[in-house]
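Task 17 of the worksheet. Students: predict the tertiary structure of the chain below and write it out as structure tokens. Keep your answer in the requested format; marks are given for formatting as well as content.
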Amino acid sequence: QRRNYPRHGRPRPGDGGKVERCLRFVRSRRFRAGIVKRLISSMIGLFRRGTSSFTSFERCVLDAIANELTDTRKESWEARIRAVNLVQRLDGAREINCYSMRGGKPLLDKSRRVLDVAGECKLAVVAIRGAAGTANVVDVWLVDGLLFSLEFRWPTEHADPLSITSIEVNLASTACEAS
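Model answer:
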């Protein structure tokens, strides 16, 4: 009597066919299409010299700042974050520059201004503490009132947002807002 075992051998007792389902998925078109899609996305990211969105760690910082802003500024802040479609990370993600691009050129949409200032302005200093006693500080910069840069003291390319224990936001003094 012939038994139909998968190519990898006998199924393990008690796995309920999980191994077979996993192998079927790995051999499926959907899995291969997902890998190809991620590979193409990575290649495009290399040519664009950036990615199209913020990491979850960066989003934690941006959301903490949003919680400290007034309602009208918070709306502009969130609109600017949604509009960003090119995020460049330099020096191990120590410096993050963000742009809203159209046709290969940056857009400076004045309706998304957080503050009505010209030139560079430091919006906030954010202190981040982690579970293992780690700490990092980030300066958040605006250019012409638009979010432009996050400058971390230490690289964040391997930072885990799940290990954050506290985030303290100190908005800039009135010198930045007076302009």
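Marker's comment: The helical segments are 18-27, 29-48, 56-68, 71-83, 174-178. The first helix runs from residue 18 to 27.
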